[in-house]
Specification:
Glucose Oxidase, domain 1, Carboxypeptidase Q (chains A, B), zymogen (chains A, B), zinc (chains A, B), 2 domains, metal-binding (chains A, B), about 450 residues, eight-stranded mixed sheet, Aminopeptidase, glycoprotein (chains A, B), homodimer
Chain lengths: ~450, ~450
C-alpha cells in the first residue's frame, strides 16, 4: 500500500471549545510526550530480559520489587515505599507427562502443571485417560467410571466470540475446577485443554483451586494441537497417561507490593493507577503484566515531565501476587480501610500491552455518564469503548468499598495466544501499542484529576 | 490477568429491531463462520511460504496469478478470469553500500535500493556524504555544494501521529523525490532514511520516481538505527559512501490481474472487493498485501458458504502491479469504462491484516451518512471508525469515475515497522486479526448488497 492520505490532520480539526479545548491540548501534549519520549518500552525490555518471569515467592520477584522501587524513584515519585504482603509460595519443579496408545511406546507431551496444583511428589502416577468435552458430559459419569482414571477435560476455547476475554471467561471453569471434579469421583489426575486461542502446542498455565476437603490431585494443561492429537488417538484406542511432577505449595512468605506517588497539590485524596508486578513462572510476563507496570509508571513520569500539576495524589501501585492469590490487592484494600485513605478512582492495566480501544468502567451510572461525555477527546487516540463494566482483579477490593474502578481495554485478539505461556515475551509487545496504552491511561487520569 | 468478565454477552444485548435485527443476525452468522471456518489465514500461509514475495514481472508473481485463480475457484466463484495488464519490470540484482569515516575502513551498511531506482550498473560510485534534515534545508544548498556529493535525506518518520499513515504521508516525499532532487544539483546518488516506525536497522524499500529530463541517479534506503549512526558520524567527521548496484527498469511485460465473481441474483451491477497480488521483492508480502488478497477471497467464500443470496454481482479483484506502477488498477478502470460495467461500490484491503477498526469511505455525503447509520451493527465487531475519506490505491481510477470507494482501516501501530521490508512475513500476521478484518469486509459488502 502506498496511498497518501489527504486527510492527514483530520483528527486535529475536531470541534474544540472552552474547557474541552484546554483538555484537547493537554491530551495532545500527553500523547506527543509519551509516543516520543516514553520509557515504558525500554523499561519493559529491562524488566523482562534482565529479571524475566517473576512468580510470587521467587528470587526474581524480589528482584522486581527492587527494580520497581528504583523505576518509580527515577520517574519522579515524591514518595516510594513497600507494602508488606504475606503471599503463598508455589513452586513448579520438574514435570513430565507421557502417553501410550494401546501397547505402543511412551510419548512425551508438552505440558505445564496448572498454578497452585499439587504434583505427584516425584512418583509416577498413571492410568487410563477418559475424555469429556464439557462439564455436562462429566456430570453424567459415575464414580465407577472415573475411579483411578485420568480425566481429560477437552473443552475448546471458543473462536466465535469477538472479544477473546469472553471465550476465556467461558472456558475458565475447566482450569479452576478440573482437579476437584476429578478427585470427587476418584480419578487420579486431570488434564485440561489450555485456555488458548492459538493453533499450536503451547500449554498455558494459570491458577486452579481445590475445593475444601477434597484430595489435592494434580491438574496439568496441554496446548491446543496436543489436545487435538490426543482427542484423535482416544477415538480409536485406549490411551494411558503417566505424570511425574514436583510442584506444590511451599507455605507462605513475607513479600511486598511497591507503591510510589506524587502528592496532590490541592488535596490528598488518591487516584490510583497500577498493574501487577508478579507473573507466572514461564515466559517473561511481558504482556501479563509487565506492560501494566511500565504503563502505570509512565503515567506518573508524564505528569512530572509535562509539569501537569496534579490536584490529587497520583499513586502507582505495583501489586504483588495477582496470579496465584491476589494477596497484594487484598492487602492494599485492607490498608486503605484501616488508614481510611480516600480514593477517588482506581485504574488497572492488566489485559495486555496491545493497541488500546478504551477503558472499562465499574462505578455508578452518573460517573460513567460523565466519563462517556469525554469520549470525543479520546477518539483521536483510538479509544472509543467505554462500555465494559469490569475492572482489574487487584482493585476489586476497592470496588467492593464503593470506589470507582476501571481497566484499560486493549485489543484482545492476540492476548490468549500467549497468555500464561513461554511465549509471553518482550518480542510480542509492540512499542507504539504499549505507549499508546500508557497515553490513554494518562489522559484518563488527567481528566479524573481535573474534573472530579 | 485472570478476571472473569461478567458481561460476557453484553454485545448480544444491543437493541435490535425490524430490519436491523435481521442484519444483526446475519452479521453474527458471518463472524461465526469466518472466525471458525475462515481459510484466509491458511491461504496466506500457503501464498507467503510456498510462493513468497512476488514483485511484478517476477516468476513468483506469475505463480501467484495461477494460485489466485485456483483459490477463487475453490472459494466458489461462478467465473474466474485473467485480465491482461502491461506492467513495468524492475529488478534489484546485487547491491552494496559502504561508508568510510575519515581515513578509516569501509563498513557495509544494511540497505535496499528504492523500487524503480536505477543502479550503478555494477560500477562503484562514491563521494562525500552531505546530510540534510528536511527539504527546506536541501533547498538552501547550492548546486556547488551538492555537486558530486551523496545526499543523505535524514528526515525522521514522526512518532507523534497516532495514526501511523499520517507519519508515512508526511515523510513519503523524501522517498519519492530524493533522487531527482539530488540529480538536479549534480549529486551522485541519494540515501534516504526509511519510512519506518521501528527502532531497528531494517531498510524499507518502496516506489520512487524520476522527474522528466532528469538524470536517473540511484536512491537507496537505510534503516532508522543505521541512519542514527550515520548522523552521529557525520557530526564529527567527513564520511565517504560507495554504492554498487545492478537494479533498474527492464522494460515492460504482459501480465495479469486475477478476477473472480459470483453472479448477482437480481441484477448484474458489481460490488468489488480486492487487494493487490504483487508485493515488493523482500520479505513475503504478508501484510502488504497478501492479507488483502486472502480477505477478499474470504468475502466471496463466505457468501457462498452461508448461502447469502447476493442481489448484485460480487467481484473479487486481485490487482497486478500496485507497488511500482498501479498498472493493474489503471487497466481495470479502463476496462470498466470501455465495457460500461456498472459498479455500485468498491472496497480494497491494503493497509495490513491487523485488527480492524473501521472502513474509510470516499463517496458522496448522503451515502456516507447512510453507511454511518449502520455503525451500531459494526460496533460489536470492533469497527467504529467510518471517518476516513480515502480508499485503496488500486480503486482510485474507479473513484475518479464517481464510483463509491472504500478501504478497510486496520489498527496502524505495527504496520510501518515492517512495511516493504524483509520483516513483512506470515509470522507477523495474527490469525484472529486477519479473520476479523475479513469479517468486517464481508459485513459491509452484505449491507451494500442488500441496501443499495
Amino acid at each position: 500500500m502506498k496511498n497518501i492520505i489527504s486527510t492527514a490532520v483530520l483528527f486535529l480539526s475536531l470541534p474544540i471549545f472552552g474547557q474541552t479545548k484546554e483538555d484537547s491540548i493537554q491530551f495532545r501534549r500527553i500523547s506527543t510526550e509519551i509516543l516520543n519520549k516514553g520509557k515504558s518500552y525500554t523499561e519493559l525490555r529491562d524488566l523482562t530480559k534482565n529479571i524475566g518471569h517473576r512468580l510470587s515467592g521467587s528470587e526474581a520477584y524480589e528482584k522486581s520489587v527492587k527494580w520497581a522501587e528504583q523505576k518509580l524513584k527515577e520517574a519522579g515519585a515524591d514518595k516510594v515505599w513497600l507494602q508488606e504482603v504475606i503471599i503463598p509460595v508455589w513452586e513448579r519443579g520438574t514435570e513430565s507427562l507421557k502417553i501410550k496408545a494401546g501397547n505402543g511406546k511412551w510419548i512425551s507431551l508438552k505440558m505445564l502443571s496448572l498454578g497452585n496444583s499439587e504434583g505427584t511428589k516425584g512418583k509416577n502416577i498413571s492410568g487410563e485417560i477418559i475424555m469429556v468435552k464439557s462439564l455436562a458430559e462429566y456430570d453424567k459419569l459415575s464414580s465407577d467410571q472415573v475411579k483411578d482414571k485420568i480425566v481429560f477435560f477437552n473443552y475448546p476455547f471458543s473462536q466465535s466470540y469477538v472479544l477473546t476475554f469472553h471465550a476465556y471467561s467461558d472456558a475458565a471453569v475447566y482450569r479452576s475446577t478440573a482437579a476437584s471434579l476429578t478427585a470427587k469421583k476418584g480419578g487420579k489426575f486431570a488434564i485440561v485443554r489450555s485456555l488458548s486461542s492459538a493453533f499450536d502446542d503451547v500449554p498455558h498455565t494459570g491458577a486452579m483451586r481445590y475445593d475444601k476437603d477434597i484430595e489435592k490431585i494434580p491438574a496439568v494443561a496441554i496446548g491446543n494441537t496436543t489436545a487435538d492429537e490426543l482427542e484423535t488417538l482416544l477415538k480409536s484406542q485406549k490411551v494411558t497417561a503417566k505424570l511425574n511432577s514436583n510442584c506444590g505449595m511451599k507455605g507462605e512468605k513475607l513479600s511486598h507490593s511497591v507503591i510510589g506517588e506524587i502528592t496532590g497539590h490541592k488535596d490528598k485524596s488518591i487516584i490510583l493507577v497500577g498493574g501487577h508486578l508478579d507473573s507466572w513462572d514461564v515466559g517473561e510476563g511481558a504482556h501479563d503484566d509487565g506492560a501494566g507496570i511500565v504503563q502505570s509508571i509512565e503515567v506518573l513520569r508524564t505528569f512530572k515531565n509535562l509539569g501537569l500539576k496534579n490536584n490529587h495524589t497520583i499513586r502507582v501501585v505495583c501489586f504483588a501476587n495477582e496470579e496465584n492469590g491476589v494477596k497484594g490487592g487484598q492487602q492494599y484494600g485492607k490498608t486503605v480501610k484501616e488508614n481510611n485513605e480516600k480514593h477517588l478512582f482506581a485504574l488497572e492495566s492488566d489485559a495486555g500491552g496491545f493497541s488500546p480501544r478504551g477503558i472499562a468502567l465499574e462505578m455508578d451510572e452518573s460517573k460513567i455518564k460523565q466519563i462517556k461525555s469525554w469520549s470525543s477527546l479520546f477518539l483521536p487516540y483510538g479509544a472509543y469503548d467505554f462500555e465494559g463494566r469490569y475492572s482489574g482483579t487487584d482493585i476489586y477490593p476497592l470496588k467492593d468499598m464503593g470506589i470507582p474502578t476501571a481497566e484499560l481495554v486493549p485489543d484482545s485478539q492476540r492476548y490468549f495466544d500467549i497468555h500464561h505461556t513461554e511465549e509471553d515475551t518482550f518480542e510480542k509487545v509492540n512499542r507504539r501499542e504499549l505507549l499508546l496504552g500508557a497515553t490513554i491511561m494518562t489522559q484518563m487520569i488527567y481528566m479524573i484529576d481535573k474534573h472530579w
